[in-house]
Amino acid sequence: TKTLKQLAKPTGVRVGTAIDTSALASDATYSTAAAAQFDSVTPENVMKWEVVEPERGRFDFTEADKLVAYAKAHKQKVRGHTLVWHSQLPAWLTSGVEDGSIDKKALKKILKQHIATEMGHFKGDIWAWDVVNEAFNEDGTLRDSLWLQQLGPDYIADAFRWAHKADPKAILFYNDYNTEGINAKSDAAYKLIKELRSEGVPVQGFGVQGHLSTDYGLPNDMQANFHRFAKVGLKTAVTEADVRITLPASPAEVQAQDNGYSYMLQSCLLERSCISFTVWGFTDKYSWIPGVFPGEGQANLYDEDYQPKSAYAAVQRDLQLA
Ligand code: G3I
């Protein structure tokens, strides 16, 4: 039987996974399966700012370099994740802003330098970058992050301009969660991105994370949502798909999980602008879910023993039919 990446090949959509680099190093089953099944990889944590610049001016790309080498060895694309986010910032940066030793002017320079240094380091090796991540609240207002507070709303346009300079060939994404369907949050992202595009700002992709739960219904109109971004010139992608269940999972919840994966994948496969479908980890063995949502889990395509679940079969079927 064919692997997911073999089935995906004729569709033109890359099928990807987030990679936990410590599992990659310690667990041969994990690294073999990731290479066999996926043709795109995203570092789950190791390209984030707190990892790559743990002390001011001291860069550490060791783990991220290993991931890039692994991807090269297996002919996989790399999605860079993520440059401008409110979370997983280095302590020197957040405390510097708090105690005033990093003022607004200095912070703007630091952000510009961060984008130039990190993207410069990986120049040519990254297919698509999540340049700005999670900048909106659910009601469509901008998130009150350190970036908004210190730099104002222009930080978003600036980030994309600096990013395009640093690696002109990488596809530059805006990425967010709860934006799969048409709602206040995706409306706001759409409005901003359309505006930015009309001003010539190089934002080139709209990524929906795809963190679903069987406790909630499926998002509405995902394909139409992708399509409106396509009409203003963007590529689209599902960047972090998983579908968590409140445990123990009933057969109905397992079925709903399969539907969740299938809905997101089909929305991507049916929309020409969609270039990749990435799952946020492929095995329940290393999922971030139980740590953040206690009592929930079993969100991935494989169980903890690397047995493919019915969600895997759903993904397989959808790729085959596409
Ligand atoms: O590396 C340290 C380790 O040294 C330490 O001993 C351990 C103790 O807690 O923590 C380790 O860091 C953890 C890190 O994952 C690496 O495992 C952090 O505590 C933990 O908070 C961090 O969680 C990550 C989370 O982002 C942080 O916000 C998850 O793995 C990662 O899956 C998750 O990914 C995000 C995307 O980047 C953006 N979209 C949402 C998605 C899910 O939250």
Automatic annotation (TrEMBL):
Family annotation (Gene3D superfamilies): Glycosidases (3.20.20.80)
Q: Which UniProt keywords apply?
A: Carbohydrate metabolism, Glycosidase, Hydrolase, Polysaccharide degradation, Signal, Xylan degradation
Q: Which reaction does it catalyse?
A: Endohydrolysis of (1->4)-beta-D-xylosidic linkages in xylans
Q: What is its EC number?
A: 3.2.1.8
> Pfam families per the record?
Glyco_hydro_10
Source taxon at top rank: Bacteria
**What residues does the GH10 domain cover?**
1-318
Keyword hit for Hydrolase: yes
Q: Which InterPro entries match?
A: GH, GH10, GH10_dom, TAT_signal
One of the protein's GO biological processes: xylan catabolic process
Record carries keyword Signal: yes
Q: Which SUPFAM superfamilies match?
A: (Trans)glycosidases
A Gene Ontology molecular function term for this protein is: endo-1,4-beta-xylanase activity
Q: Which family does it belong to?
A: Belongs to the glycosyl hydrolase 10 (cellulase F) family.
The cross-references to PANTHER family, in alphabetical order and at most eight, read:
BETA-XYLANASE, GLYCOSYL HYDROLASE
Would you tell me the protein name for this molecule?
Beta-xylanase
According to its UniProt entry, this protein's organism is Microlunatus sagamiharensis
